[in-house]
Amino acid sequence: MAKVLIIEDSESQAEIIKSIVESAGHEPIICPDLKRGISQTVLSVEPDIVLLDLVLLDKDGKPLQDGFQMCREIKRVSNNKIGVVIVSSKGDEASAKWAVLQGADAFLQKPFVVEDLIEVMEEVLRKSGEEN
Predict the structure, then answer these.
(1) Any idea where the domains of the chain sit in the sequence?
(2) For residues 34 and 42, is the Cβ–Cβ distance under 8 A?
(3) How far apart are the first and last CA of the chain?
(4) pTM here?
């Protein structure tokens, strides 16, 4: 069972992803506070994989954090040992390519098919398990 950190600003989306992660037999952890630094969260939670939204907004709809920057920080803090899957409504090809350049292991566009999320998550977990 892997620890899966879910970084998503929409509570309803986070709950949906949480139930999918649980159904796949993993331990979901919804990021408690996006204002808290991602480095501290990653170090305290020690996830095996992170499901990361790119567009993170506060309660007033203002940008809170940049998902690309968070991806780079997760990779830096974990010495590239934690898998990152970008799960975003920004589904253009440029965003997907940029996500990979920022260190993401995979990119999945919302809305997604449940089986696709599970498949991508399992693939990233397999790869990161082989590398560690």
Answers:
(1) 3-127
(2) no
(3) 16
(4) 0.93
In 3D space, the residue among 1, 76, 60, 73 whose CA is nearest the CA of residue 31 turns out to be 73
Cβ atoms of 7 and 51 closer than 8 Å: yes
- Reported as half-sphere exposure (CB side, CA atoms, 13 A), residue 101 has a value of 6
| 56-110 per-position pLDDT tens digit | 888 888 888 888 999 999 999 999 999 999 999 887 888 889 999 999 999 999 9
**Residue 43, CA atoms < 13 Å, CB-side half-sphere:** 8
Residue 122 is encoded by which pair of tokens?
Answer: 């399992």
Compute the distance between CA of residue 30 and CA of residue 79 in angstroms, rounded to an integer: 22
Report residue 52 as tokens.
Answer: 């990361």
Q: Classify residue 123 as exposed, middle or buried by CB count within 10 Å of its CB (0-12, 13-18, 19+).
A: middle
CATH homologous superfamily of 3-127 equals Response regulator (3.40.50.2300)
